[in-house]
Amino acid sequence: MAENMDDMSTDPEFKAWAAHLVDEVIPKMKGSAMTISLAPSPESESDIKYAVELGLSIMLDKPIVILAMPGQVLPEKLRRVADRIIEVDWRKDPNAGQKAIADVIESMLGDKS
Q1: Could you say which architecture CATH assigns to the domain 33-109?
Q2: What pTM was estimated for this model as a whole?
Q3: Residue 36 Cα to chain centre, angstroms
Q4: I need a surface site. Which of 3, 53, 98, 104 has the fewest CB within 10 A?
């Protein structure tokens, strides 16, 4: 990977990642109705994938749903940009997490069936 920001435009790994974003991630996000993502843990200060996907969600004007563990501290600006925050301990009860997500999707998009 590039040693510094100046090297990024010529770095083969960066070019491959950028191509992946343009060819795969952006079209998938454009085709989705909303973004649902796990809040990054406080230990992961530089989750680049999360940051790029969050930025794309904002730029594509997608509703943003964030899944967080109960009591998880989220940055204030992340809270502001989220349309919904679901606090659920999916490790203890995976079904509760699935139900919470389904309920939010239904309430945000309506039942299309």
Answers
A1: 3-Layer(aba) Sandwich (3.40)
A2: 0.80
A3: 6
A4: 3
